[in-house]
Amino acid sequence: MTVEQSPALLLRALTRASALLAEGLSEERLVPPLTRCAAEALNADFAGVYLLPEQPANATTWRLAGQCGVDSEILAGLPTKFGSGAGVLAPLFQGTREINEADLLGGGAGANLPPQLPARSVTGVPVRRRDSRPIGVLLVGATRPNAFDAEALGVLRSIAQMIGVGIDNARLAAGQQRVRRLVVESQATLGTVLESVGSGVCVVELGGTVRVANKALQDLFGLPGRSVGTPQEELFAAASIKPRESETFLARLRELISRPTEVDESEWELATEPPRIVQRYSAPMRSLVGEVVGRVDVYTEITESRRLYTQLLNSEKLRAIGEMASGVAHDFNNLLASILGQVELLHPDELKPPTREALATIRQSALDGARIVRNLQGLSRPRVETPSTTADLNEAVRSAVEMARPRWAGAALHGGGAIELSLNLTDSALLSRVAIDPAELREVLLNLLFNAADAMPDGGRIEITTRPSAHPKAADLEVRDTGHGMPESVRARIFEPFFSTKGPKGSGLGLAVAYSIITRRGGQISVESTTGAGTTFNLNLPYVPIGAPSPAVQPAQRPEAPAARPAQPAPSLTGARILVADDEPGLVAIVRQLMERSGAAVSIAHGGTAALESLRSPGARFDVVITDLDMPEVDGWAVASAVKTHAPGTHVVMLTGWAGEIAPEDFKQRGVDVMLAKPCSRAELESAIAGLLAAKPSTGLDVLLVDDEPVFARAVRDLLGLQGHQVTVVDSVAAAMELIHSHSFDVVLTDYSLGEVSGAELAERLADLPVSPFVVLITGYATEIDDASLMTRGVDAVLPKPCRGDDLRQVLSRLSTPTAQPR
Known about the structure:
Elements: H1 7-22, H2 27-41, E1 46-51, E2 63-68, H3 72-76, H4 78-81, H5 90-95, E3 99-101, E4 121-128, E5 134-142, H6 150-196, E6 200-205, E7 210-213, H7 215-221, H8 232-237, H9 246-258, E8 264-270, E9 276-286, E10 292-301, H10 303-345, H11 353-379, H12 393-413, E11 419-425, H13 438-454, E12 460-468, E13 474-481, H14 488-491, H15 510-520, E14 524-529, E15 535-542, E16 577-581, H16 585-597, E17 601-605, H17 608-616, E18 624-627, H18 636-646, E19 651-656, H19 664-669, E20 674-677, H20 682-693, E21 702-706, H21 710-722, E22 726-730, H22 733-740, E23 747-751, H23 759-767, E24 774-779, E25 797-800, H24 805-812
Parallel strand pairs: 11-12, 16-17, 16-18, 18-19, 19-20, 21-22, 21-23, 23-24, 24-25
Antiparallel strand pairs: 1-2, 1-5, 3-4, 4-5, 6-7, 6-10, 8-9, 9-10, 12-13, 13-15, 14-15
């Protein structure tokens, strides 16, 4: 230490520096006063503390953290001016090594000092942390030469050490403060998250005491308001909403507390109505060192996801059933076709009335069986359909009741109670026919009646009611029983496929099929039930789109029903050459006999290979080939292709049990003229073949076409023109009536949907004329030629829309001469 330094001054500076360290000041508040203490202790003219960043992007970037004696801008520039390259301060700033320059000018005392370094003598030492890692430097300087000796350098080292310790302490305190702040923020964030999530969260200590229970958990189980600090088992035992297996649930909680490392994933059904399902995921909670300190349980309600999963599973089951039904449909329909064919071969007129009635029952049962197969196929792919046939509601009820009576009688014989039946049927004159196939409606009613009987093992009462619906153009059908009823949990699932409460006796398909049938036909079905108070099924069925009498028309004034029309004689196939191909010998024989009765010359082929051989044999000429689709080796597609290749004028009729699986346009594209579903009646088969063989009229007809769809009207006009007919096209009933009053037409082809006045109403107006034309109704509601459900007053024939040229030719061939005479 130089003579100019006072021991008292040095002692005061060091004492003050020690006091600053003891105050625990922040780095920003600590470094500047310690810098002044260094200048005071060494009697220096200036001092500066330079620090490196805690995470430096550039190791040479120095920050002036404390200074005294000289302007801060001058001191801040020293590391750049004199601490780089070969500068006098380079060892200090580049290598963090001590420096001690006694006289920078090397001249007399009066030499000028450079403004960038206003000192003749400087000394500097590194500032280090406790681990000896350098974090900065302490630099002091004086305007006098030889200002700092070895003793001064030792004091400077002590102060630099104090600065390093102080910075260490300040940074450690700042880090702890940041951690505390992050902990507080994390706790607040965690609390917000826990209250925001939809799942219930429960954090439990090792002893079973609840540390955290969010609001979702309290709402899910109806827990008391005070949950934290309560033993977990006691908390759930006091819940207002408990699992159905409450004791098992609590026992499992005790097991998890005794086995802290175990992971649990389980599902529990809550005792609510309807039931709710909760999934629990429980896992151990560990500290930072991996020690188990508790358990976290997460409860998530999965009722809706489980419902969707069940729905998906049911869809897969339905798809499997559809595939299975498609697989058995062919074989089963072959059996039904054999039954129906044998019935058709009998002569009912020669039999006694009871025998005729029995044969009619057998025939109807075969047709109903085929319908059931199609319904099972359709169950996996519900679709909206226009009605192909219609049903008399009261007649369907009576028929279903008669079919169900033997089941009730059998139950009574085996010790069951008697079932009383009450029918409250509205007069049929006040009900229009409903848009559903009679066989499908009987199937639905039988399901409801059988379920009602099963619900009354000790007997009871079934009441069936029909009435006009409060909804326009619809009828209501109600089936009520006094059975044991069902809880809401069962009622909500009653129409689900495979859901049954009958155990091994129930398939769970009956009501699912019923629901599919009713909704597919545009109706509605619902159920009301209470445990111990019986069950009521309500069906709402729409009327047919046309043909129903107006409410203002009295029964005596109702138009003539289709049944009152003169019976059409069976078409004659005399002289027709027909080849029948099928791999079922019984069906081949039946079809052969049916066609021979109609006058046809029939050849048979047992399978597709034999059919091809018959087609290629010398001199083979056939008017019609009737073929099955599914045959071994050579199928019906190959037979149809061979027919159209070798004899394009020969017609192909495909008789198959796969009719419901293949789109009609696919049949047309593959050379099939007519597709018939097995089993089919003799009349259907004869009518189809007669239509194919019908010759077109020898002279052209004068045709009026009424249709408001220009594209369709143009296509029909072109088809009729090719057949030699004269066609006039109008787009409304008003325009048609104006033309008809001034010109006589042989035929009127009319669409059904024509705006305010329908095609059916146009037919009725034409029927009132002195000489009426032949009226053909063309509509998308029809599914076959002369659909019985659409044959209203004034309509002579019905064609499905869109129609083919052959369909038009077949219908118009009924007019050998024009029906209307010039007025």
